[in-house]
Amino acid sequence: xxxxxRIDAAPAGHWVGDGFPVRSLLSHHLQGEFVSPFxxxxxxxxxxxxxxxxxxxxxxxxxRGFETVTIVLDGEIAHRDSTGAGGVIGPGDVQWMTAGAxxxxxxxxxxxxxxxxxxxxxxxxxxxxxxxxxxSAPRYQTLMDDAIPHVDLPGxxxxxxVIAGDYAGHRGPAQTFTPxxxxxxxxxAGATATFRLPEGHSLILAALDGALRVNHAEPIDAAEIVVFxxxxxxxxxxxxxxxxxxLLSGEPxxxxxxxxxxxxxxxxxxxxxxxxxxxxxxxxVLPNGAG
Length: 291
What we know:
seven-stranded antiparallel β-sheet; 3 helices; 26 strands; 8% helix
């Protein structure tokens, strides 16, 4: 079995805009090269929002050099960006946005969710782009729940959704620049499941809800993260109660990272250029002149 390199407890929360109360479970600043190609994992909620008249969320902001993967577990998000793309994603849906050379976008609670209020639970993952693709054209993939394979785990242990990569011959719909797997897993109380990910990949388990044990030993609670060695075979997960977690694996990019906020490049000079391009309006504007 793969060895555990580190377990990081649930961090303190903070707000992103006025619509996303998040805990940053993963960060390349903290876990370093052992989580490449992943840069950040923010877990928003679960939070119960009261009805309102003005949508909450995050207004126009820029990105360059990486991708955002937004997985909605509860609630609804309306997205739009400076390419003219956008839409609404709800429970089970995924928005995969390639910022590439640069994009402005906003993420808001939908008008319907704003009016009704309710449970809001979202995961946003940042995925690095290799140097050869950092200046690629922005792209937007809408992965609706019914297009994502839902696979029963062996022994009726639970359910796995294949967002990216492959599980037991079921291929996820996401198009990725580097090899990776993003699996959304539900494991029933008392069940055990074994997962084998590619040798040489970084491997991360992000616990969202419930209580589990890894490799029959280490207890993991909600909002904790487990980073494994990049070799060593399978991992085993036991659920002490109904459990929800993400399994992330990816081929490490092994390139220098220069980051300032929403810009992720390879050198300080590229970072300065990204900031200058944004200030010069080269990322475009949102529809209707916003941003």
